[in-house]
């Protein structure tokens, strides 16, 4: 494989679904062997489906039917008519896409960052649909009793300025980012100077590739919607079902070079998911696990799902 394929927006065919009042763009690569196990990969912020470009083909080669959408408002997907960008809306979109559009009755879900709460909600909202989870570098429900005595259960305060601004002052921030170049430069800081990734992971071509979707003003503004739901309850369609999970088998991975997620993410996740495997720490890896540690993610997921892949 040519390394330039990793930053080629045309590498995979883009499919479309319109079951939920907007056009959802997604990659759908069928397994290269066997009947195929449905694997839904859910991106976060500031990401798009492109964050999975390195792992789509290897997942398909391992026997997965790989489904990689742009969440509502992100990337090539459209803006929803209902105006919601909350976790439950994303969760229902994912169910509609995989179950109603593509016809699967079981799915393995994988995600980090915003994708983490989405798949956690899915697992509890649709317990007969979600077979198991692969979770990395994600927000978690805080359980004061179970997490007592764990140091590092709060994200670094100095890294939270973007979160507050995007949640409380989204319109003004979007207005300040008035050109495509300004929007790209803003997103680029999260792949570089803000130290979310392990140092040196993203070269300029990779940064440009991941920033490109956010050059669109509508995409940038829509992407702030999830942050607004934290501060404004009216921005949510309903409460999330994300919480303690005693039933879903969950592989927990952690890129510890991440300077935005809780330093004790791995220990916290072990308290949230009773049927967890791991947690496993990924050397020289930060927030963007599918891009920074693609082999570990693919091989770990394949081993975790070995029984499904043999069926």
From TrEMBL:
Record's protein name: Unannotated protein
SUPFAM superfamilies (UniProt xref): alpha/beta-Hydrolases
The organism's taxonomic lineage, starting at the top: unclassified sequences, metagenomes, ecological metagenomes
Coiled-coil boundaries: none
Pfam families, per database record: Abhydrolase_1
Key words, A-Z: Hydrolase
UniProt keyword annotation of Secreted present: no
Signal peptide: none
Domain (AB hydrolase-1) ranges: 38-294
GO terms for MF: ether hydrolase activity
One Gene Ontology cellular component annotation held by this UniProt entry: membrane
């Amino acid at each position: 494989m040519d390394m330039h394929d990793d930053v080629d927006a045309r590498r995979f065919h883009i499919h479309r679904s319109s079951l939920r009042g907007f056009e959802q763009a997604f990659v759908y690569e069928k397994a290269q062997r066997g009947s195929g196990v449905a694997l839904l990969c859910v991106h976060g912020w500031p990401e798009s489906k492109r964050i999975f470009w390195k792992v789509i083909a290897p997942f398909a080669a391992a026997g997965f039917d790989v489904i990689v959408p742009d969440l509502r408002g992100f990337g090539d997907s459209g803006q929803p008519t209902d105006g919601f960008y909350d976790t439950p809306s994303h969760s229902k979109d994912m169910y509609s896409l995989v179950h109603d559009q593509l016809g699967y009755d079981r799915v393995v879900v994988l995600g980090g960052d915003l994708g983490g709460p989405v798949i956690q909600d899915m697992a509890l909202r649709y317990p007969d649909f979600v077979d198991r989870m692969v979770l990395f570098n994600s927000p978690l429900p805080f359980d004061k009793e179970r997490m007592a005595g764990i140091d590092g259960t709060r994200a670094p305060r100095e890294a939270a300025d973007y979160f507050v601004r995007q949640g409380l002052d989204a319109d003004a921030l979007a207005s300040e980012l008035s050109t495509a170049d300004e929007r790209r430069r803003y997103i680029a800081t999260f792949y570089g100077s803000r130290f979310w990734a392990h140092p040196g992971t993203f070269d300029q071509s990779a940064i440009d590739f991941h920033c490109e979707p956010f050059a669109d003003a509508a995409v940038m503004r829509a992407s702030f919607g999830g942050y607004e739901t934290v501060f404004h309850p009216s921005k949510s369609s309903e409460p999330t079902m994300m919480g303690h999970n005693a039933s879903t088998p969950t592989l927990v991975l952690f890129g510890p070079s991440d300077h935005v997620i809780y330093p004790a993410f791995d220990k916290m996740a072990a308290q949230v998911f009773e049927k967890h495997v791991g947690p496993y720490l990924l050397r020289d890896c930060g927030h963007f696990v599918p891009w920074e540690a693609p082999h570990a993610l693919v091989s770990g997921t394949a081993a975790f799902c070995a029984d499904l892949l043999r069926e």
